[in-house]
Amino acid sequence: MAASTPLLKDELDIVIPTIRNLDFLEMWRPFFQPYHLIIVQDGDPSKTIRVPEGFDYELYNRNDINKILGPKASCISFKDSACRCFGYMVSKKKYIFTIDDDCFVAKNPSGKDINALEQHIKNLLSPSSPFFFNTLYDPYREGADFVRGYPFSLREGVSTAVSHGLWLNIPDYDAPTQLVKPRERNTRYVDAVMTIPKGTLFPMCGMNLAFDRELIGPAMYFGLMGDGQPIGRYDDMWAGWCIKVICDHLGLGVKTGLPYIWHSKASNPFVNLKKEYKGIYWQEELIPFFQSVILPKDCTTVQKCYIEISKQVKAKLGKVDDYFIKLADAMVTWIEAWDELNPLGTTGRLLNGTTK
Fold first, then answer.
1. φ, ψ for residue 102, nearest 5 deg
2. Stretch (H or E) spanning 292
3. DSSP state of 226
4. Among 200, 239, 213, 295, which Cα is nearest to 80's?
5. How far apart, in whole angstroms, are the C-alpha atoms of residue 162 and residue 120?
6. Element of type H or E holding 250
7. Which residues are glycosylated (predicted)?
8. Quick one: how far is CA 63 from the chain centroid?
9. How far apart are alpha carbons 289 and 316 in whole angstroms?
10. Residue range 185-209, pLDDT digits in tens
């Protein structure tokens, strides 16, 4: 379907973290040019990043982040793609799509270019079904429906907060898997979108991801990673575990599957191992922690849920390593910074009925 006006043109920002010139945007021009871009420049702020002509964008480097957030800038990672979450915070739109600069346009099995953004929007604008699994996957897609035996009381579904896309070519593997399978490429195009069931965690990858900022934005914090931190490459994972627990609590949906992008280059597995080493070890305790998190009934907003998770992180994971005490504090700082920059929420509604 070729829409005359791009879907959600004035309601969606594209957030891109980068350390290099954004030549990759040329390939995405037919799909991205109508939208506003927020570019978060990582690394050396004195370096000039070139953006191709004709794109509407704002660019923030580390100096800008420090200027805007002041002392609270400590919650934004440096020398790690986790810095992208600053873009989520300064956006004023209802929806966010985030993509890495080594992700190109993929082709579907019939050879047609995939408009990843359009598919993410379709995912977000249709309901999710987290309470009962539909064996034909997404029942709201054209040509599908609820199967026999699916309770009618649940067919209305719930609002979709997150759309998690996948990758052809270089799969999103951890360092040990990369080392064992250096030449493995993903060529399997599975034409499916599914809701991740309530109570099930998943590994969220941030390189092809869209979400409703109004429904889940304050929980999309990519943690403390990279420079000066004992861990990297767990930024999107951390956000994914937090958002899933909160979506389950608030009755929101998370979808995974289409759209695919073409992931062009594999990162160095030895560098990755150094970044991931502690995470691989810690995640054996992190997963049971998130599986056991219970949020009280009075946690009725994303912010309240997130602050409650930060308290539990400090109390329980603080025993695993001091890093988690620092991370729990950064989670609180992130929420304070979010509320300062978004005092009216994202739709002009007053937070907690008071103005700041």
1. -110, 20
2. helix 269-292
3. B
4. 239
5. 9
6. helix 235-250
7. 148
8. 24
9. 8
10. 999 999 999 999 999 999 999 999 9
